[in-house]
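Feature request disguised as a bug: please show the residue count (452) next to 3-phenylpropionate dioxygenase in the output. Example input:
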Amino acid sequence: MLVKDSVNKQTLQKLKEKLDKGLMPQWAVTDKDIYELERRQIFGKTWQFLGHESELKEPGSYVTRWIASDPVLLVKTNSGEIKAFLNSCTHRGAHLCTADFGKKKTFTCPYHGWSFNLEGELVGVVSGKKVYGEKMIKDEWGLRPIPKVGMYQGLIFASLDHQAMPLEDYLGDMKWYLDILLGRSDGGMEVRGVPQRWTAQANWKMTQENFASDPYHVQTNHRSTVELGISPSDPNFASYGHQIVLGNGHGLSIMTSATGKSPYKYQTLPESMWPMFQRNLSPEQNEIFSNATVFVGGMFPNLAFDSPVHGMEGEMINYLNLRIWRPLGPDKVEVWCWFLIDKAAPEEYKEKAYKSYVGSFGPSGTLEQDDTEVWARIIQVSDALMMEDKELSYNNVNNYLLGEDVFEPVENFPGPGVAYPSTYTDNLARSIQKRWFELISKGLLDEEEDSQ
Ligand code: FES
Ligand SMILES: [Fe+2]
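Example output, currently without the count:
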């Protein structure tokens, strides 16, 4: 039996047939039943990004985050360990800590005043034994830990699934590219400010796809940034370079220039830092990094990154932007957007980098606004009656055939993964969709087949 009548085996099989051909029915983007499958089988199972270690500076530092609909309290304990708990009081389930960040020794519930220490242990009960007698065993009422917590290059992840594979296996070959972005400098990266966040009318799959796998939109949708002189001056700049498919729904595009060499060596980071990059990275990683204009990509399901060069007062400046698309439903996302820069960068560069970020991404960013507008319009179109065609009788599908039969993988790319010789290809988008479908249909198609 399938859990949902409207997403039955036949529908899933039709969906799979279309996906295998590089076609995505639009009804599946915002379908409510598909969304419920995503919530449980994707967000309930995969590793989810919660924050960066530099956000938790000292014992007692905490931030509050979400894994889709699950509130998370992330704390640094007295021993320096990072722990994650369901941010819900074990008395009656009130949202325990409602601040975004801070530093505390204990967390006291606003409802009846129970308090918990940094290890999640219940340490205070209002009126204690007077009202609970001897029956209250505090040890039994600690906060519920998030089943898995892991860290890679300062990125903190967690999973709601006890059976989740080790984080490093989950990230796979993406680690090699994360090392370039996060491990190139002594001391790593630091988050400046707090993550900006806002809601957008959008579907999380479309926003992830936009960042992870769709440089093709840049030429048109962000054309004004070329004309303003805040993006590289060649209007086709986003097409040069490689798209790299890494499996497990991860991948990225690394843009260069028409000549294959970026005019912005090491993405304009100061020359004084270059020997450090050469020391911390392999020759292959240096070859890629020194010639890159932009790194943009994603880790399945909803963590995306962008490391561009962006014009700020006449100079091109680099920064790293991490972002998650927290789904609030099939047609709404809460965007969480972090600015990061090398801890070892000169202070003057860091300040320029932050201004460059604020002008390009985040709620005030030019490119952000270009994209947000289009995402909302996809949602509006998804409400059309003709989009409800689950039988696909009108062949109502979206096109993921970019680069098909045009680009073959290159053989001598210096990094891991399957690299295509242009960023204008849908190979990565299709690999993301494949992973998405594997997870949402897990157990559903097979179970049905077993019972036949
Ligand atoms: S719900 Fe937290 S103390 Fe009652
Ligand atoms: Fe964009």
